[in-house]
Amino acid sequence: MSRISKDQVKHVAHLARLAVTDEEAEMLTEQLDKIIGFAEELNELDTDNVEPTTHVLELKNILREDEVRNSVSVDEAMKNAPAQKDGQFKVPNILE
Amino acid sequence: MSILDKKISELHQLLHTKELSVTDIVDATFDRIHQVDDKVRAFLTLNEEYSRIKAKQLDEKLVSGADRGLLFGMPIGIKDNIVTKGIRTTCASRILENFEPIYDATVVERLTAADTVTIGKLNMDEFAMGSSNENSGFHPTHNPWDLSCVPGGSSGASAAAVSAGEVLFSLGSDTGGSIRQPAAFCGVVGLKPTYGLVSRYGLVAFASSLDQIGPITTSVEDNAYLLQAIAGNDPMDSTSAKVDIPDYLASLTGEVKGLRIGVPKEYLGEGVQSDVKERIMEALKVLEGLGATWEEVSLPHSRYALATYYLLSSSEASANLSRFDGVRYGLRSDNSNNLIDMYKQSRSEGFGEEVKRRIMLGTFALSSGYYDAYYKKAQKVRTLIKEDFTKVFEKYDVIIGPTTPSASFKCGAMTKDPLTMYMNDILTIPVNLAGVPAISVPCGFSDGLPIGLQIIGKHFDEATIYKVAHAFEQATEHHKAKPKL
């Protein structure tokens, strides 16, 4: 039985905001199925009483003073914008 | 001997006695680049005009007798996922083809404060995903020892440029071996520091809990110089550690008497080529001769590292790379008429295949219903892998093994033997998962291609790694070999 279906791949692509053609979805289904199959070897290990590691350093909330500091100017912030108008990022229609 | 074959300390002596100027060094660097880079293809962007101006300014500083930085006048190449103000930074991706950062990464600021000259930006696998530089969105880089072979990856060009003598040293980044594996393939010295030692501010994130910036050089001494300049806490990176930075150069004593070395049996097992094993055994003999002792040890969860790494790094990447949406910077597709479609088209046109595959895997592993089975499971196995190292380090000062199971391979050959390809990463990935530091130093050849010795240390004990690496280097001739280009 395959671990991931083509419909699931299309759903994941939508979540990831990637456009995939039918052919690409086919290919990705096969490739992801193999990778996930490989990853399932982790199930050999009993990890019921193991704490997950999110970070190797034991860091807790890193706090700093809430002080006013220099920020970037509007011109700098807009420097790499693909489309802009009146100092704001311009995007296509959001509401149809 | 060319200027660029000298060490930092030697060049500083020549600058001090005025036998050499910074302009001479920078001129020699660009001469060399123009001579060989059409073969190696390491650079994506050259910063030539500015470098020559900077050289003049530093020469004036030399004459004036003002205080000089630790790396005064030294030319450096920077991997193209580290942002440089006003210098194009692409991550070797079409999605950032024309991106000009508006600030410098903290490491770049520190290098500038140390009086280096930024020569240019170096090629890589797109967003640091890959082990051969063949995943660059622009062009592959070639191995200076054999141009038909890969330089490794993802910091392949950072290693190739140093090996080819195009720059004295470079910065790379290492998420699963991306500094050490190319350093091994190109016969140079590459260090992945302890997670948190070097600021990641301005490093375009791939897998935030694994990524570290580190130095690539021709000698251990130069490597220590470079780390000295970039290490240390940075308020702009909340994961950067607050630790005292030792004098790394002071650790280069050549003295390893009484040092206890653990050699994991998993690192010399199936899939590791016999001549690689032989070079490692020879290296252990050298260290024994200097008074160190070694014993076989076990890192029993090593075989689970690769699956753990792929799940965690892809999950983190899928979140990190969601920022490339065609709104504030980067490529925007013209083939769309609403916002969601614009996101999808821009990302699909801008990202290469490997990047898309990993985003898909990560999004899947994090998606509702699968999170516990894949992502959380991998985080738990990560704990077991980390504990393997902790246990060995209770009895041993360093862990030693090969950096990679084989030497470099031919361009285009990577899909032919997936097992060897997987094994390629198996010796470097556990180090990132555990967050410990490790170096790769040249330890000989396999059919004319370099092999790397990997020395792994305890958290924040880069000084001991350098001590061992330097003692080994000084007792052998491997680092003196240069590729013929």
TrEMBL record, chain A:
Keywords attached to this entry: ATP-binding, Ligase, Nucleotide-binding, Protein biosynthesis, Transferase
Family of this protein: Belongs to the GatC family.
Chain spans, region Disordered: 73-96
Single GO MF annotation: transferase activity
Function: Allows the formation of correctly charged Asn-tRNA(Asn) or Gln-tRNA(Gln) through the transamidation of misacylated Asp-tRNA(Asn) or Glu-tRNA(Gln) in organisms which lack either or both of asparaginyl-tRNA or glutaminyl-tRNA synthetases. The reaction takes place in the presence of glutamine and ATP through an activated phospho-Asp-tRNA(Asn) or phospho-Glu-tRNA(Gln).
SUPFAM superfamilies: Glu-tRNAGln amidotransferase C subunit
Gene Ontology BP terms: glutaminyl-tRNAGln biosynthesis via transamidation; regulation of translational fidelity; translation
UniProt subunit comment: Heterotrimer of A, B and C subunits.
Organism in which the protein naturally occurs: Fictibacillus arsenicus
Catalytic function, reaction form: L-aspartyl-tRNA(Asn) + L-glutamine + ATP + H2O = L-asparaginyl-tRNA(Asn) + L-glutamate + ADP + phosphate + 2 H(+); L-glutamyl-tRNA(Gln) + L-glutamine + ATP + H2O = L-glutaminyl-tRNA(Gln) + L-glutamate + ADP + phosphate + H(+)
Domain of life: Bacteria
One Pfam match: GatC
Protein name as catalogued: Aspartyl/glutamyl-tRNA(Asn/Gln) amidotransferase subunit C
Assigned EC number: 6.3.5.-
InterPro entries: Asp/Glu-ADT_sf_sub_c (IPR036113), GatC (IPR003837)
